[in-house]
């Protein structure tokens, strides 16, 4: 499984539709300060289901929508599509290629899609749970995370290993079943 493409419209600093093609060999995104490198990572975390505006470096979810500039009006929605190669079926869905889309409007309305089929946020979160790619997964290590992992309590650190070992999905389901 590898990240093939990221399509972004109206997300943070990306007012125009932009496509990042992660062809084999691409290992880094470089650019001057403030050019939007971290916004690319925020887009990946957001489409994978991130619900906390704060961890996307904003105050509220609306802050992910392009807020306008000197020459451009603000936009009314943000949309991100992440496309993964799934030849080895690392994701439990019978497609060679899997794309997930998330869209949010200023009104607060949200839409989610897996391979262009509308779905719930929960479906996206479950699809990636235990794949090592979920929003809490170990595949994205943000600034400060290394220290956080080293300084965290044993139980908190354990959840990283549980995700890596593939048991987090079952624990989450068990917890939900117990609540009901
Ligand atoms: P550094 O090298 O300093 O880490 P970076 O390349 O990671 O920089 P980002 O943090 O990704 O840069 O981008 C920050 C820019 O994104 C800022 O100029 C900020 O104004 C802009 N930005 C963030 N949210 C929005 C938004 N909703 N609308 C328009 N611009 C935004
Ligand atoms: Mg940055």
In short:
By secondary structure, the protein is an alpha+beta fold.
Descriptive report:
The chain has 180 residues and is α+β, with helices and mostly antiparallel strands. The protein contains five helices and six strands. It has a six-stranded antiparallel beta sheet with strand order 2-1-3-4-5-6. The longest helix is centred in the C-terminal third of the chain and has 12 residues. The model has no long low-confidence stretch (mean pLDDT 90). Adenosine-5'-triphosphate binds next to helix 1. It is found in: Cytoplasm. Required for chromosome condensation and partitioning. Belongs to the SMC family. This is Chromosome partition protein Smc.
Strand order of the largest sheet: 2-1-3-4-5-6
The portion of residues forming beta strands comes to 15-25%
Extended strand count: 6
Q: What is the tally of helical segments?
A: 5
**Global mean pLDDT:** 90
Bound molecules: adenosine-5'-triphosphate, magnesium ion
Instruction: Catalogue the unreliable spans.
Output: none
Structural class: alpha+beta
The helix content, as a percent range, equals: 25-40%
State the distance separating the first and last CA atoms.
35 Å
Order of helices and strands: EEHEEEEHHHH
Shape: globular
Q: Which value, in Å, is the CA radius of gyration?
A: 17 Å
The biggest beta sheet reads: 6 strands, antiparallel
């Amino acid at each position: 499984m590898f990240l093939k493409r990221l399509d972004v419209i109206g997300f943070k600093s990306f007012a125009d539709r932009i496509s990042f093609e992660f062809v084999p060999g691409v290992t880094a995104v470089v650019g001057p300060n403030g050019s939007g490198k971290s916004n690319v990572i925020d887009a990946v975390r957001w489409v994978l289901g991130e619900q906390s505006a704060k961890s996307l470096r904003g105050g509220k979810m609306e802050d992910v929508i392009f807020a306008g500039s000197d020459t451009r009006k603000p936009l009314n929605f943000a949309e991100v599509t992440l496309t993964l190669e799934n030849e080895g079926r690392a994701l439990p869905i019978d497609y060679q290629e899997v794309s997930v889309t998330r869209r949010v409007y200023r009104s607060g309305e949200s839409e989610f899609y897996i391979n262009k089929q509308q779905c719930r946020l929960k479906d996206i979160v479950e699809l990636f749970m235990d794949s090592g790619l979920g929003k809490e997964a170990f595949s994205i290590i943000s600034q400060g995370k290394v220290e956080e992992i080293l300084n965290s309590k044993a139980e908190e650190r354990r959840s990283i290993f549980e995700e890596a070992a593939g048991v987090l999905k079952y624990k989450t389901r068990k917890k939900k079943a117990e609540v009901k």
